[in-house]
Amino acid sequence: MTESSIAEMLAYALGMTSTVLFSLVYFPQMALNYSRKHTDGFSETSMIIKLVGGAFLLVNASFVGEPFPVIAYGLFGLSMYSILLGQIAYYNKRYFLFGWIFLFPLLPLAMAVLFPESMTVTNSFKPLTQIGSHLAQLKMVWDKQTASGVALTSQHINWIGAWFGLYMCYVLQPKNTSTWFLYYNSVFQAGSFYAAVFWFDGTDKFLRGSILTSFLAKKSKVSPLNAIEAEKPLYQPVVFTNSTREAGHEMKLLEAV
Fold it and tell me: Cα 252 from chain centroid?
């Protein structure tokens, strides 16, 4: 077995691992939405844009014969976007979004069958929608002044899967150069969300916001003074005793005189 064949096998394995990771990337977000029974802080506009890009990626990658990991990435991505958009539709009672979920993917398929030459243009839709959807989510974070609506574990998985995918592209050389961008953009997406969490929510929130990093927060040292300050209530409750009631009654009598 030559070194090149070993490299190709490793690249294919990492590409498939990347696809598996990307298929799991939104499960933490789904769990977060389900546990809190709302999608506050999670952008509807972002998910609509992602659905558009995912539909075109799946159809175009299938028609031009991209490596199977890329096709699977499109299939899993479209499925995840559909479920997340479904959560938004259900929790916010925006039921018309279900029509978008089921009907829109037919458009890329029809375009690929009837106008195959259009794929030279629509191949760029996935990279463009990745940028657009990410900016929409960042705007939501900026407006809310917190990134708490986005599951950090999803971003960690996104980060790891992106680097595996880039290695696959380096060795296997995908037919569509925009495929490179999909993985580079995932690195950018995760990195910019990390920056947003640090900026708006602080280091402690970054560490405690995911099961993958929470063990680091447990090891962090807190000074005794800070611990006492953190445990102080925001206000001290007022306890009324007989003596305080009598004093208050005497004050009212004096004011009446």
Answer: 60
